[in-house]
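cron nightly-structures :: item 1 of 1
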Amino acid sequence: MTDLLTLDLKGFAEQGVSIQLKHPVTGKKLESFITIQGADSAEYKNAMIAVSKASSLSDKTDHEADGAKILALITLGWTGLKFGDEEIKYSEEEAVKLYARFGWISDQVFSAVNDRKLFLVNAKAV
């Protein structure tokens, strides 16, 4: 018999997971972590709808900016990010800027958002 609570992907995705960023060229693990919700979360679906509606009201569609906004809406926080000597404090506004400026970070986060296996670690909490 299958216990569906062990496969509650929506619930697990909404809890979020922290991913460790990797250097964009070498793949070496960095001392930076971003906590995100997954693609099965209601927040992700709501972010997709909200950004899509806002984009449809505009004459010009900027897919990169739309992607940055979606990722920002499902980002729960981060640690270990700075510009020079200044630590970047998490906020939705800072997340949008981060994802828009650093495509390699958005790529890693987007990949993780869609990797259901990452969110199954939350199954242990059930």
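cron nightly-structures :: done
The two ends are 17 Å apart (CA to CA).
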